[in-house]
Amino acid sequence: MPQLGESIAEATIVRFCVVVGDTVETDQEIIEVETNKAVMGVTTPCAGRIESFSASVNEAYPIGTVLGYVEASVEDAERLNAAGAGPIAERAAQIEPEPVSFESNEGARGISVPIRSEGGPFVSPRVRARIDDLGWSPPEIELLAGTGKGGRVTARDLENYLTALESSPTEKASAMRLAVSDSMRRSWARPLATAGVALPLEPLLDHRKQIEIPPGPALYVAKALAVAISEHPRYAARLAGDQLILPKSIDIGIAVEVEDGIIVPVIRNLDQQPISKLGKVYQDLVSAARTRRLPEESREGSIASVTNFGPLGITWATPIPLPTETLIVGLGRGEKRPVWDEAQGQFKPILMAELTVTFDHRIMDGGTSGRLIQRMMTLLADPENL
Amino acid sequence: MLNTLKEPQRDALQSGFQEQYVKAFKWMLLARTVEEKIANLWRAGKIAGGVYIGKGQEAVSVAIGTMLRRGDIFAPLIRDQAGRLAFGEPLLDILRTYLGSKTAPAHGRDGNVHRGHPREGTYPMISHLGAMISVVAGGLLARQMKGITGTVGATSIGDGGTSTGAFHEGLNFAAVEKLPLVLVVTNNQYAYSTPNSKQFACHDLVDKAIGYGIEGYNMDGTDLRQCLEVVGHAVERARSGGGPQMVVATCLRLTGHAEHDDASYMDEELFKQPLGRDCINLTESFLLEQNWAVESALTTWRQEAKAEVEAATQQVQREPVCSPADEDWMPLATRRLADFDF
Amino acid sequence: MSITYLEAIREAQAKALRDDPRVYIYGQDVADFGGAFKATKDLAKEFPGRVLDSPISEDAMVGSVVGAAIEGMRPIVEMQFSDFSSNAFNQIINQAAAFHWRTNIPCPITIRMPSGGNPGSGPFHSQALESVYAHFPGLIVMTPATVEDAYDLLLEAIAIDDPVIFCEHKFLYNRVKVEKLLERNGQSAGKARIARPGRDLTIVTYSATVHDALLAAQELARSGIQIEVVDLRTVKPLDTATVLTSIANTGRLLCVGESWPWGGVNAEVIARVASKGFHLLDSPPQRLNSRDVPIPYHPDLWRASRPSVAMIIERVRKILQW
Fold first, then answer.
1. Do residues A229 and A127 share a domain?
2. How far apart are CA A320 and CA A313, in angstroms?
3. Which of B44, B83, C74, C287 could form a disulfide with C266 if both were Cys (CB 3.0 to 4.6 A apart)?
4. Are residues C175 and A96, on separate chains, in Cβ contact within 8 Å?
5. Three-class SS of residue A192?
6. Span C128-150, pLDDT tens digits
7. How far apart are CA A250 and CA A235, in angstroms?
8. Are residues A119 and A170 both part of a single domain?
9. A neighbours by CB contacts (3+ pairs under 8 Å)
């Protein structure tokens, strides 16, 4: 059935003008059909003989239907088949076999790959809105596997993850937990490295016996750190663009464990405070910290801090400084260790604790960290100097 | 085949004509006066946009307004102040529209000569010349369909407007449907700065009437008597089933295209020819000649016109101006759609 | 006994002529001939004096129906092809569309535009101009995709007191049909319908491409992809709320339409979604239009120049990979 006119979709056979077996010429009208506009003729595509009809009078057939066959010469058959068999195919009736690439509505490279921003992966507005609702921060998405381009986490991926989470028991995180969590996440955005050494404890343990309110080992370490930094302020510099920001004053924090987290009260100008006074200072700070009544100037602003996890039984760890600090010194549990004494030709039991310094490797390299540690060791070997 | 260039009947001194003539003259005078007023206001910076006046064609225009009846349709064009007044448009309308009153027919949404009261028979024009012809014709067709007989629709157009496709389509359609349309073509020799020689090649615009298969007449646009007679005849022909009527009036535009145009391009010779005469002066002369008025009456009428215009101006100047705060910004009539997203 | 899209348009006009003496039909070849597409077949006979032939003067046709509307009639103008409406452009946008705004008098005209492409129609018998007319304030633009909407929306168009551009799609005239028409409430303008509910992506479309979208959705369903197809029904007013609700559900948008890319219906939908529904989007909204060329004549070129089922499928897959 040929395309009989604008918007015609089908036609009804009125009559056949020839019968099977008849010889026909090119463009001879052989079937009369009726559309909703007029009666028209279907003509032969070439000369030949009517081989068969596959349509009936008074039936309607859509455009493109085969109505019959003409037995034709080889040349004609080749010519007509090469030109494309049959009339124009209906769009609505079939899906084209070959997709046409259709780029004209986009940029030359198609939909752009999501870019990374704010140090995190690309987050679509919908995903951003969803994680805002949840109270997540964007880099938390980094932890999820994404099925989108470039590993992007799609809204569907997030929803699937949340659905999976729903099957686990949950409890609400405290405000303290969330604060520490945020702080550590931000701090970790830097390349942090840790160097360590074993520190003999006897010198400072002996020294503290003479002091009325004896400062703990952590305070000795803090004072040593403060002195070392005061000699070389670069140790505690911060980086902003191409500027190194040097510390205004040597303010060192001491980590205190509180319920469900840590507080780091700050002792200002620690380099100028005699070690003998530090015990009292620290005691006051701890009780204030534990009751959440730290004075303003002691709450924050440390350029470095010290954390003593020895009492918890930990021998060695790589602590993480606060986001505003560039150094943290950790002190582990003291234990007697056999140390070879060359002069005496034997192992001697020495009380030692691991001292680890985590530093921002953008500011300080391994060698410098070594110098810092050596200076602290020297000071702690002779605590009178503190 | 109609003889389209018939001579109009001459009934100059028929009784009743004097009254009509005097009344028409007063409208012309009022039109001239109010247009001088708005031209002055424009020069004083009191009017936003352009000011278009009909100086020189008051006689042609007043003839249309006078010969149409209440209930007819009139789509006035740019220089039809006299015709508008004669047809019944309030004097306040022109001042309110130009001065941006809240109470202007379009309350600020449209201005200058684009004003009208469609349901009362005055169709407001759009700027595209020729476009109103088919609208008037359509209105006449609708009346026919509703079984209303005996009404006429009239519109003006200038020599320039006859060049538009809209003119052709509208007039052709009216002719095919044999509608009672009266088309008054005022050939004032210029369309903005374009003289007739650049506007059309036919010998006389009235020759187009033959082309459209309609009746056509010439008239001297400076002669009020001839205007009343010819336009009156055309209106009668249309009203009694004669189909569309084309009346071509010859006169001269005695002003610029608009008040911002100094018309320095116009051929000075034209002002010296008969077609360059001021129809108001001619009318006054005729009144005196016929003894239908004395000089003092003319003076009085001029003063009355001035006073009427002054009073109207002052009234309008005291009225509130249109304001964005009063707008509902809703172009559609169908209220139930007002809250939809467009 | 089925009824095609074209027959529905004829039925709607017959009903309007029957129910309201103010309605009449005006166009070229609409009277005894019944119209180029037979949309007014036999109506001149059934309603003598109400179906009138016009000269080939689109400008005057529209101007005249504005005049008729002033005088209280509710005319329907048939443009023989939407492509020829450009001859009437001035009267449509400056006379009709501005009329109520300027005069406070309604202009209740309906302009029927046989729109859209057919194989072999070429550049001047195939245009889809809904985007052009939607741009102008004062006009309503309808783009029915189904037989029921062709019927309902045309009746609503005639009842609306403002100029309505009724874009009926020629390709659908005899190719879509239903068993029987159900009476509806006649207030669908500005209300889109969900032609197919889905979850993974929303296709917003109208007129003939609704059918392409549904076929594409069917094919994609075989791969487990569930496409939601929103049929706008009218592009002006445009049902932003339904579109946004759908995007809230799926997060992804593909607008499909037959008109050209620059500033059309697709661009309008995306602009609205980007400004009001930004937080709902999981991927950049996309559009699929006809190519930015005059519509080609040859059927193969024509088919490659307009959105097709295959192109829709390919685009959807691409968006889903994003």
1. no
2. 18
3. C287
4. no
5. strand
6. 999 999 999 999 999 999 999 99
7. 11
8. yes
9. C
Q: Would the pTM of this model clear 0.95, i.e. be above it?
A: no
Asked if residue A217 has a cis previous peptide bond (ω within 30° of 0), the answer is no
Question: Closest by alpha carbon to C93, among C72, C116, C109, C74?
Answer: C109
Give C145-204 pLDDT, tens digit per residue. Answer: 999 999 999 999 999 999 999 999 999 999 999 999 887 777 999 999 999 999 999 999
pLDDT in tens, C28-68: 999 999 999 999 999 999 999 999 999 999 999 999 999 99
What span, in angstroms and rounded, lies between the C-alpha atoms of C186 and C154? 9
Closest C-alpha among B121, B192, B142, B135 to residue B163: B192
State the average pLDDT for chain B. 94
Q: Residues in chain B with pLDDT < 70?
A: 1-15
| A5 belongs to a structural domain | no
* ipTM associated with this complex: 0.92
Q: Tell me, what's the pLDDT at A82?
A: 56
User: In CATH, what number is assigned to the domain containing residue A300?
Assistant: 3.30.559.10
Task: Identify which of B145, B173, B340 has the shortest CB distance to residue C73.
Answer: B145
Same domain, yes or no, for A285 and A332? yes
Best B114, B212, B332, B337 member to test C by mutation, with max C CBs in 10 Å, is: B332
Range of the domain at A318: 191-385
Residue A39 or residue B233, greater confidence: B233
Domain count, chain A: 3
Say how far apart CA A217 and CA A351 lie, in whole Å. 13
Contact B166 C160 (CB under 8 A): no
Is residue A357, in this structure, part of any structural domain at all? yes
Do residue B124 and residue C240 have CB atoms under 8 angstroms apart?
no
Are C99 and C59 in contact by the 8 Å Cβ rule? The answer is no
Chain C, 243 to 282: residues with Cβ < 8 Å from chain A are: 251, 261, 278-282
Looking at the fold, whether A235 and A179 belong to one and the same domain comes out as no
Tokens of A295: 């004075």
Which residues in A lie closer than 8 A to residue C170 (C-beta atoms)? Answer: 6-7
C125 in catalytic set: yes
Show which of A65, A92, A119 is a domain's final residue: A92
Tell me if chain C has a CB within 8 Å of the CB of B112: no
Chain C residues close to B332, C-beta within 8 Å: 100, 138, 140, 161-162
Judge: domain B2-7+14-322, CATH 2.60.120.560: no
Residue A189 CA neighbour count, 13 Å, CB half: 16
**A111–C322: do the CB atoms touch at under 8 Å?**
yes
Domain shared by A227 and A251, yes or no: yes
Burial B274-305 (b: 16+ CB within 10 A, else e): ebbbbbbebbbebbeeeeebeeeebeebeeeb
